[in-house]
Amino acid sequence: MKHNKIFPFVVAILLFSLASIIYFHPILKGHKLNQSDITQFRGMVKDINDFRSEENKEPYWTEASFSGMPAYQVSAYYPNDFVRSLDRLLRFLPRPADYTFLYFLSFFVLMMALKVNWRLAILGSLAFGFSTYLIIIFGAGHNAKAHAIAYMPLVLAGFLWIFQRKFILGFIVTGLAMALEVYTNHIQMTYYLGFCLLILGIVEFVNAIREKVVPLFIKQVAIIIAAVALGVGANAPRLMALKEYADHSTRGRSELTINLDGSNKEITNGLDKTYITQYSYAKLETFNLFIPRFMGGGTIEKLGEDSNFYQFIEEKAGKKAAVDYSEQVLTYWGDQPIVEAPAYIGAVIFLLFFLGIFLVKGRLKQWLVAATVFSIVLSWGRNFEVVTNFFIDYVPLYNKFRAVSSIQVIAELCVPILGVLGLKAFFSTEMSKEEKYQGLKKAVLAFGALIIVGFALAHMFGTFEGLRDAQQYSEIPAF
After folding, report:
1. pTM for the whole thing?
2. pLDDT, mean over the chain
């Protein structure tokens, strides 16, 4: 019996390791991914590392970042930090293959908590880990974000086990997963995960009222709080240091009372609204999630000789001009300042998500759909100010974070979960063929209609012009 329980994990770990290495196979030759943020980070921590190696103790100040700042906000090692040791044990592959492995493994554990067949769980884990956004953030060097996203499914698994009344297993997994999640030091991603967990709690609470098991729900919540407290407490030194610094940073109360133009400055305890919502998803841009390159590609891309752009320039101005102008082409026409690539989750995954909507029954579906819609709406930022301003003004800590579009990581997580559950229901023997056929039919029609609506809206309202087009292409002569 124990052998049957361990075997799927052994197979999964081997497959996930292999998939991660194959995808980033240049690392086997010693190559490293050029990450701009990590290059800057290495420059900032050089004096810290030098001091650490020479003095054999931790520095508390660095002059290599801004005009000087506490070193513990850049790089710090804490004594008896078992969470760091556990994290290193799990991330045994070379970077960035280690993060993709964590994506896969963490999601697989979540699938086990949802009682999904291990073969289907492996397939779902690969779909989650190879989601476009989760890969493109490596290019910019957003390692901490990737690190935090990777542990999100593990946290969810712990919560679900507790709600399934597997209290000891759920308590242990929740405590360790929260410790690892907070350790990644990307508080914004952890904060967004909190919304997903809160929605899960609300759904469970409503169900507890219906089933008249509120005392059991209170017990489950108490166990969750205790486990989360232990996980957070394991990171107390870095969190307390962060809080101390945040009060004196741009995320704290400003001492300035006037703006540059002499007008009175609004006194806040967080970031400026314009800065918070600078990176906001346009409502139309949401179709990027399931229509490839719906709003073009990244802000700047290199187009090859087979592109229409290259061939047009070559025809009008010759090969040299075509080569020069196609090296850096603006392909994104949304209204965010910079985009590495479209945050494409996948058309197939979204079709399965709709299949899950029509086939999956119960509160799991309610939670996943609600969390998905919630994250997409909040990602619109300044393009849906009624909701965004409410959260900035009244929801604790929401005004401490910028780039609200990144809350779509919750949709990145919930969509494949419901997609896998939809497949599980479709292949189950508990549902009649007619029910399955009707569910599939409704999913295809609903998703197909949504795609048609997307293209219609793009045709009616799409400008196909990005924020930088006027400046960039004014330099190109009229051919």
Report:
1. 0.88
2. 86
